[in-house]
Please model this.
Amino acid sequence: MATFSFDIVSEYNKAEMNNVFAAVEKELASRYDFKGTPAAIEWLGDKAGFKVTGAGPWQVDTIIDIIRKKLIARGESSKSLDLTKEVVEANLKATQEIPFKQGLSQDSAKKITKLLREELPKIKTQIQGDLVRATSGSKDELQAAMRLLDAQDFDFALNYINYR
Model:
């Protein structure tokens, strides 16, 4: 009997993040309400996140909303943004660093495996570092697992890779 599997990960698409960055930059340059303000978006480190600058916290929040809209338009989850860092106000401008979330934490992986074991007992799950491998003898079971996970409201983005 054949066994089928897929991996559950929490990743972001780097190419799409480049596209989102370019789209947000273009919108900031063209919007009238941002003219003459320090509103800007920059890359963090080695493209590991965004650094948002605005005239105040309200403008930083507006730019983050623009980022979310662009992510959704490109089919990416806004849950890949780590919005836990505080807004820093200095020199008449406010900045916020928004790193991207990459990989599943142990707690997140345990939540996923527990949910799958309770709801779909025929599926075997295994935590392998920062991913969870789900295996089953039926492709239909695995597709049901994907639907179940997509229906949940986790605080992290989910992607499925290595579907075999």
Remarks:
- The chain has two domains: 4-11+103-161, 14-99.
- The beta strands are 4-9, 40-43, 49-54, 88-90, 93-99, 124-128, 131-136, 159-161.
